[in-house]
UniProtKB/TrEMBL annotation:
Protein name: Tyrosine--tRNA ligase
Superkingdom classification of source: Eukaryota
Catalytic reaction annotation: tRNA(Tyr) + L-tyrosine + ATP = L-tyrosyl-tRNA(Tyr) + AMP + diphosphate + H(+)
GO BP terms in the entry: tyrosyl-tRNA aminoacylation
Listed PANTHER family: TYROSINE--TRNA LIGASE, MITOCHONDRIAL (PTHR11766:SF0), TYROSYL-TRNA SYNTHETASE (PTHR11766)
Keywords associated with the record: Aminoacyl-tRNA synthetase, ATP-binding, Ligase, Nucleotide-binding, Protein biosynthesis, RNA-binding
UniProt xrefs under NCBIfam families: tyrS
Length: 413
């Protein structure tokens, strides 16, 4: 984990290492996610990869979905309160994010390590009595300590309101750790470095209440070499669910990695052995593109399965061949939307760019056209009010392109 770049802070790294080596039972480690959207994005992938590596090394993963804490909203790193979600929204989001966990973590058997378990903190937080909870656990938290954590200080320094509801979030997360220590013998909580304060509160609560040593371990927050937040692009978030972002677009995201980030991302987001990556680190110039393709192949295969790579590579080769005549040889890996024959001649290209997720808004699509980046195959679109015509379709397909590396297909029904 250290050599791949996963370690940032730990409440007792040497003791944790000793504990993992000395125990006969698998160490149980947990990772928590609130159900604030119906898909996770690539910014969450680092933590999932850590849990996957731990499982393959003999640890037992416990994935917590925050059915209860999603009703509160974690204020960490946020300038404003999160949108309040109802029960149906939360359950729909849990169903969506669970698909990603089941792809990376083994919940069925012993194929890649001890069988993982998924839990929902609604099971214990949902029935808590307020007065009893305050009496039993309120004395273990001090306002002084809570105000000292960076996530709280940042919010207050920006003079943005921090509600009492949100202020309680770290107490609920700390109590989650205590409950999982009791219910599932969990002794390690994972999280990003922005979660350090919340995690420490859980470590301290478990020690004070049950006189039990547990550990917290955080990974660094990943930014790209130009300082941008990992997973944020002009087209929006890089979602992990295929119904929100196609496997081809996901592959293309990794293929477009900056030279300076390629080796680091190979270590963090693939399972390629480190000795192989060390050799790739010596590549220079155009050769680094081979490492980027390997990164894209491996990262996409982990999420969407290795069987999709052939189609994606064929689509990419066809797309970048810059055919001067006709359409692309292979469009099977591209995002697709259907256009009814009756709507032909009345549907603007701007709307189709939006439907294909090649633009984040109509304004963004118009900006793409104005900048010369919008094309039908290789022909530029110069009018923001351009409507699709029958001549734009070849064999029932119209390929729209956003820049040189992103494309989608409008299928005529």
């Amino acid at each position: 984990m250290r050599d791949r770049g996963y370690l940032f802070q730990c409440t007792g790294l040497q003791q944790l290492d000793d504990s993992m080596m000395s125990t006969t039972a698998p160490l149980s480690a947990y990772l928590g996610f609130d159900a604030t959207a119906d898909s996770l994005h690539v910014g969450s992938l680092l933590q999932i990869m850590i849990l996957r590596h731990l499982q393959k090394s003999g640890c037992r993963p416990v994935v917590l979905v925050g059915g209860a804490t999603s009703k509160v909203g974690d204020p960490t790193g946020k300038d404003e309160s999160r949108k309040m979600l109802n029960e149906d929204d939360i359950q729909n989001n849990i169903n969506g994010i669970s698909r990603v966990f089941e792809t990376f973590i083994d919940f069925e058997g012993e194929e890649q390590g001890p069988t993982a378990k998924m839990v929902n903190n609604e099971d214990w937080l949902g029935g808590l009595g307020y007065l009893k909870f305050l009496r039993d656990y309120g004395t273990y938290f001090t306002i002084n300590r809570m105000l000292s954590f960076e996530s709280v200080k940042q919010r207050m320094a920006r003079e943005n309101p921090l509600s009492f509801l949100e202020f309680n979030y770290m107490i609920l997360q700390a109590y989650d750790f205590l409950e999982l220590s009791r219910r599932e013998s969990v002794s390690l909580q994972l999280g990003g470095s922005d979660q350090w304060g919340n995690i420490v509160q859980g470590v301290e609560l478990t020690r004070k209440v049950d006189q039990k040593q547990v550990f917290g371990l955080t990974a660094p927050l990943i930014t790209t070499s130009d300082g941008k937040k990992m997973g944020k692009t002009e087209g929006g978030a890089i979602w992990l669910n295929a119904d929100k972002l196609s496997p081809y677009e996901y592959w293309q995201f990794w293929r477009n990695t900056a030279d300076a980030d390629t080796v680091r991302f190979l270590k963090l987001f693939t399972e390629i052995p480190l000795e192989v990556i060390d050799k790739l680190e010596k590549l220079e110039g155009a050769e680094i593109n081979e490492a980027k393709i390997l990164l894209a192949d491996e990262a996409t295969a982990l999420l969407h399965g290795p069987e999709c790579i052939t189609n994606i590579r064929e689509t990419a080769d066809s797309l970048f061949a810059q055919k001067s005549q006709g359409g692309l040889n292979d469009t099977s890996g591209l995002e697709r939307v259907v256009l009814a024959q009756a709507d032909l001649g009345a549907t603007k290209a701007v709307d189709m760019f939006l439907a294909l997720k090649l633009a984040s808004s109509k304004k963004d699509a118009k900006r793409l056209i104005a900048g010369g980046g919008a094309r039908i195959v290789n022909d530029p679109i110069t009018d923001e009010n351009y409507v699709l015509r029958e001549a734009d379709f070849i064999d029932g397909e119209c390929v729209l392109r956003a820049g040189k590396k992103r494309a989608g297909v409008v299928v005529l029904e």
